[in-house]
């Protein structure tokens, strides 16, 4: 690998594009799978989708502890060691982390395989049919844990291109293999079809891992060379600051001290969804709902969350790119640089999150029906849309704090939000149905995001500027909503095919939002210049017009 690091925004953009491609493939893949289940489950595919999601939620919880935290921990510690000129220390961090993640992943795979009947029974007495799906997913825990170690290595070098490519490879292979396996196995039974869907995760993860291993081996000669930026400083001082090689036990404790809080934080989202599994099924059982009907409604809820979580691909990329970037700045004592990067991340978060939330709310039924051919999911989608801004803001603010060394604080805030979400889910599901569970998700993420904002302001100083970051995008988004309301009826008379009608409204909304954002000065030249290629030209033109940002 060339040790030329990518800029924070370029890295975030690469990961965003990769994650967007991956999520879009997943979003299109799931409706196709639902159509495969539809002739066999008698519920338009909702029962089959519900059976696939129960093992996946558990898988994501376990994966958070075996890979997510260690993945981010590797990136942070490698970035720290390389900033200090300690390439040997960075190499040791990776090797020990790789060993730990392989052991944890293998143990987790065994637990999920042999514990499948117990896990399904714990979640609900009516989920025996998910056992094949649990076992089909189990090998992915080992493969993904090892792959996450290599992703953490590249992230630590602030090189996001390999990870972006591996994400796309993983998802393409996952979609292809999962579709084929579901098609053949669903003809034997719906539970086996769901297991085929789940086994696609194993095949996709293996493809992504093989690509990263190949890349790491090919570039091993130049991978551990110090970057020109590190050498251009006072090299002697940098090398004196590099710590001596740590004993294995000390290094493992350091890795775990960084990784454990992040792992807990990464587990909170799937734990929130696990709370839905636990409380939603029990709420429906209390009112005497048939098991298949309960599974179908749970499938609708997970579909709505998947759509609401789709815009978060942008902030997930910001988080991944921002954390080592801020770590590097803080390690060298550049607090001002860290503050500017945090503010830039906030701006980009609100520019994307606010219109996404408004758009999903006003087009809830159309968007859900576009993907799943079921207008009945519109109410759940409208309720879940309120979670978009909280989800995205929580991710960005967590990246700022953890990059600055406050590893545990966003975890604590997230746990507070998750506990509140679980309590509200248990309280609201019986009177309000799955809409209550969706509102509870929005409140849980919102509380966590607000607590994070307060902590960042105390840590770095003023990073949030409400006028430019919130009010201007909000004004443009409300104008977008008004435009959609005005053209919805006339456009519906011209375009009678519902999917095309929804896509056209989305396009109209996007254009109106972009124009209004420029008119109110919600975009700065540096925002446009951060985009590759044409972005520099647009930024220069924007600057000449001197439109205030």
Helix and strand layout, with pairings?
Elements: H1 8-41, H2 46-83, H3 87-114, H4 116-123, H5 131-156, H6 161-185, H7 190-218, H8 220-223, H9 228-232, H10 235-241, H11 248-286, H12 291-309, H13 312-331, H14 335-362, H15 364-372, H16 378-385, H17 388-403, H18 408-432, H19 434-460, H20 466-494, H21 498-519, H22 525-529, H23 534-545
Helix pairs in contact: 1-2, 1-6, 1-13, 2-3, 2-5, 2-7, 2-11, 2-12, 2-13, 3-5, 3-11, 5-7, 6-7, 11-12, 11-18, 12-16, 12-19, 13-14, 13-17, 14-16, 14-17, 14-20, 15-16, 15-21, 16-19, 17-18, 17-19, 18-19, 20-21
Supply database-style keywords.
about 550 residues, mainly alpha, 23 helices, about 85% helix
Largest sheet: none
Mean pLDDT: 80
- Count of separate DSSP helical elements: 23
Q: What count of structural domains? A: 2
Fraction in helix = over 70%
- As a percent range, the share of strand residues is under 5%
User: Structural class, judged by helices and strands?
Assistant: mainly alpha
By oligomeric state, this entry counts as single chain
Shape: globular
Report the span from N to C terminus: 38 Å
Give an overview of the whole structure:
Helices cover about 85% and strands about 0% of the residues. It folds into 2 domains: about 10-465, no CATH class; about 465-549, no CATH class. It is globular and about 65 Å long. α17 (about 390-405) packs parallel to α19 (about 435-460). It is built from 23 helices and no strands. The model is unreliable at about 225-245, about 530-540 and about 545-549 (pLDDT under 50). With about 550 residues, it is an all-alpha fold. The longest helix is centred in the middle third of the chain and has 39 residues, at about 250-285. The two termini are about 40 Å apart.
């Amino acid at each position: 690998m060339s040790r030329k690091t990518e800029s924070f925004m370029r890295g975030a953009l690469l990961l965003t594009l990769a994650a967007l491609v991956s999520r879009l493939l997943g979003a299109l893949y799931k409706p196709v799978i639902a159509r495969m289940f539809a002739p066999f489950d008698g519920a338009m595919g909702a029962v089959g989708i519900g059976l696939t999601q129960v093992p996946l939620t558990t898988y994501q919880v376990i994966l958070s502890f075996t890979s997510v935290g260690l993945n981010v921990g590797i990136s942070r510690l490698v970035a720290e060691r390389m900033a200090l000129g300690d390439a040997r220390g960075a190499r040791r961090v990776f090797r020990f982390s790789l060993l730990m993640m392989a052991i944890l992943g293998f143990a987790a795979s065994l637990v999920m395989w042999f514990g499948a009947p117990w896990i399904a029974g714990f979640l609900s007495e009516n989920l025996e049919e998910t056992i094949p799906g649990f076992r089909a997913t189990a090998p992915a825990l080992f493969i993904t844990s090892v792959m996450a170690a290599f992703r953490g290595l590249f992230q630590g070098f602030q090189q996001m291109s390999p990870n972006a490519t591996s994400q796309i490879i993983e998802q393409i292979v996952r979609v292809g293999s999962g579709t084929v396996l579901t098609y053949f196995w669903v003809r034997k039974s719906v539970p086996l079809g769901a297991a085929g869907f789940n086994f696609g995760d194993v095949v996709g993860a293996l493809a992504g891992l093989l690509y990263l291993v190949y890349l790491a081996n090919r570039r091993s000669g130049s991978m551990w060379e110090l970057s020109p930026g590190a050498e251009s400083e006072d090299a002697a001082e940098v090398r004196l600051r590099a710590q001596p090689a740590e004993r294995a036990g000390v290094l493992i404790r350091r890795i775990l001290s960084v990784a454990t809080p992040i792992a807990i934080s990464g587990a909170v989202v799937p734990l929130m969804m696990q709370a839905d599994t636990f409380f939603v099924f029990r709420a429906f059982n209390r009112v005497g709902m048939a098991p298949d009907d309960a599974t179908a409604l749970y499938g609708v809820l997970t579909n709505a969350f998947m759509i609401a979580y789709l815009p978060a691909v942008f902030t997930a990329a910001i988080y991944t790119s921002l954390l080592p970037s801020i770590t590097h700045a803080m390690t060298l004592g550049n607090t001002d640089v860290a503050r500017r990067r945090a503010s830039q991340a906030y701006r980009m978060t609100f520019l994307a999150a606010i219109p996404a939330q408004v758009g999903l709310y006003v087009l809830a039924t159309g968007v859900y029906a576009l993907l799943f051919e079921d207008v009945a999911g519109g109410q759940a989608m409208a309720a879940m849309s309120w979670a978009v801004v909280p989800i995205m803001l929580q991710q960005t603010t967590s990246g700022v704090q953890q990059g600055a060394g406050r590893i545990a604080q966003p975890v604590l805030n997230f746990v507070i939000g998750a506990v509140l979400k679980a309590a509200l889910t248990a309280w609201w599901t019986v009177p309000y149905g799955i809409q209550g569970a969706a509102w509870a998700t929005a409140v849980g993420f919102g509380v966590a995001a607000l607590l994070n904002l307060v902590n960042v302001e105390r840590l770095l100083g003023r990073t949030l500027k409400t006028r430019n970051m919130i009010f201007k995008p909000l004004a443009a988004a409300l104008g977008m909503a008004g435009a959609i309301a005005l053209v919805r009826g006339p456009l519906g008379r011209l375009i009678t095919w519902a999917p095309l009608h929804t896509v056209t409204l989305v396009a109209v909304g996007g254009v109106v939002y972009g124009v209004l954002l420029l008119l109110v000065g919600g975009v700065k030249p540096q925002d446009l210049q951060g985009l590759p290629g044409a972005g520099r030209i647009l930024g220069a033109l924007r600057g000449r017009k001197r439109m205030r940002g």
